[in-house]
Amino acid sequence: MKLGGEMDSFFDSCVIINYLEFFLYKTELRKRCSDYINSNKDFLLCAYALKEIQWFINKRAAQFYEVLKKIKNSSYKIGTDKEARMFNKEEIVYNEELFEELKMFDVKILSERFENEISVMRLNWRIFLKNRIKEFVVKEEEIDQSLINILHEFLTKYADCKILASALQAQRNRDFFLFVTLDKHFKENEYAFIEEEPRLRDYKFPKLKNLLHSNGRTY
Amino acid sequence: MTDANINERKTPEEIKAKILGALNDGPLNAQEISKAINSNWSTVKNYADELIREGKVRETIFGGNIIYQKLIEDTYYNIPITDKQRNTLKFIFSNAIRIHREIKEEPIKRTALAKLTAELNSELDLKLPVVWYLYGPMPLMIMDLQKDYSTTKNPENSDKILKFIRGWIESKKHAHIGELKVEYYQKVNNGLYIAKETLYANLKKGYFTDILKLTRDFYSKCLAYNDHFCELTEDFYDIISGLNYLKAIEKNPKIKNQIFVTFDSLWKYVASKMLYDSLLSLGYAKEGINNYLGSAIETKKCLAIESIKDLDEEYISMLPDEMICIKEDEIGEKISKTMQGLAESETWRRDGQLL
């Protein structure tokens, strides 16, 4: 641990996504992420999170595009365009819901708003990467598949396993850092339970900070 | 019959002709040639080396094996075509050049010849090797307008071909090359090439007003096509989106040129992948295509990456220090509500399949 008790923060993708969204729409949860990032420094980001956030932004752009297509052409069925093949069934439902919410607005105004949102989100993402990330850790080819498999026995989401596996690998040769998440899958006991797994005894576990809980408690 | 017996009856020229014949359908290693021409390995090796010295064959290492590839000087990337296809293409080229001069009193342009051949091919179902590349569809045989393509071997439906050529040139009498390209892309409903052509034309003329929309359109068409080159087009779109929002393009004329150069190298890479896919759909074997095009595609990819990195460096240097905030409004509130649900559901995650 560093002098003064300040630890580096290793981010789960959802924290950054909420932080980026804070500049578009203010909610309590997004503010919590923003406050955390603004009051801390020395951030670590793994390759998987980097890709996932990029993927999220691209999907958001494509969602807006779907809504606009539907507004411009009412016979268009959301989710049927070639470009929409990136969406799964549940997402298509969300896209339809988004269309229902926004269909009464003027297409030109909506189009401008969408364009601005995506541009700002992309820009803020680049500003964040440029100014706030201390180190990029664990390249995609370095993620240990056997470690992912073990974690998958405890965590249902494969993406969570990849992020946590990256965190455990990054933690190996460095001072303890905080694994900052906003994830309902990481509850107090669940994390402890993973820590007790004998096959993971050689791993140092970062301290968990789940911003989903209002006190942002560190376990 | 033994190999020795066979070889006794063949002259060196005959063996070399047989080797070249075996290589007509694509590259082979010595073992495969030996099997194909029923001759022993060392004989094949010796004559293949002679053919290399004569400049008729080239030796490359592919998948750890030495393979031999026939050098075909009249096709792009030495990709083999059949003699029948070659003759038909020669017939089309020579007549198109002649008829164009007759009707328009000027030489035909390569792009027009390529479009004419492509349309003729699909209209009369000639099964010619026509592929999609930089400027749309084109025949695999190199179009050299200074070359004499006259042939004595007329294809089966030569009358129909001649009629089509004449009709096509007549109907496009006043068309501009750019219009011809777009017209063809629209006819075959190729959105990616339409998007590329529009963006390219705007960048070339220095019109940057619609750059975000046009880049977005190009990116979305790439996305709809497949995932091959999406990452690079995505990076390009990302940079354009930021530069446009910051109004950095208008302020910095130097970057206009850099954007044009970057898009040009990106397109060269995308088009090389289109060429690859065209060859696949024409029935060429994947291994063979990798051999003809593999290194060329890799080089184009590296150049595109380098070009995008250079542009990105410029972009990064222009980024503000502070995060940018959007004013909240009713639309934002509605988006926020739906998106919060989506984010929490985590359905947007590819569940680990991202990398």
Question: How would you portray this structure in words?
Answer:
The complex is a heterodimer of chains A (219) and B (355). Helix content of chain A is 53%, strand content 9%. In chain A, α8 links the parallel β4 and β5. Chain A has one domain: 5'-nuclease (Rossmann fold, 3-Layer(aba) Sandwich). A five-stranded parallel sheet of chain A has the order 3-2-1-4-5. With 219 residues, chain A is of the alpha/beta class. Chain B has 355 residues and is mostly helical. Chain B has three domains: 69 residues, Arc Repressor Mutant, subunit A, CATH 1.10.10; 108 residues, no CATH class; 129 residues, no CATH class. In chain B, the strands form two sheets. Chain B has a three-stranded antiparallel sheet with strand order 1-3-2. In chain B, strands 4-5 form a two-stranded antiparallel sheet. In chain B, β4 and β5 form a beta hairpin. The model of chain B has no long low-confidence stretch (mean pLDDT 89).
